[in-house]
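QA checklist item 7 of 12: single-chain prediction sanity check.
[x] sequence parsed
[x] length recorded as 101
[x] structure emitted
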Amino acid sequence: DIEETQGYAVNYPMIGDDGLAVAKLYNMLPAEEPGTSEGRTAINNATVRSVFIIGPDKKIKLMLTYPMTTGRNFDEILRVLDSMQLTAKHKVATPVNWKYG
C-alpha cells in the first residue's frame, strides 16, 4: 500500500492489472507472456517503466516507455500534464522546454 509504506495517499486513479491483460493489450509485455503478475520481479516486469496519460475522453494522449536502466522523469511528466491541460482550454501550443507559469 503506497500510503502505508510511503506516507502519502495517491489521489489519482491507478489501474491494477493482476492478469496482465492491459499490459499485453498495450504491448508493454508480449501477448504470449505466460502467467499473471504473481511472483514477477523487476527483471521480467518492464511494464513499470511505461507511463500513459489518458484524457477525459478515455483516449491515450501520451505514452512514455523508459528503459529498465533509466528512471522516469516526473518533472517532465508533470510538465506535459500542465501543457496538455493548458492547450485543452486554449488554442495555443507550448514550445520546447515550456514550463507552467
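[x] summary fact logged: The chain has three helices and two strands.
[ ] second reviewer sign-off
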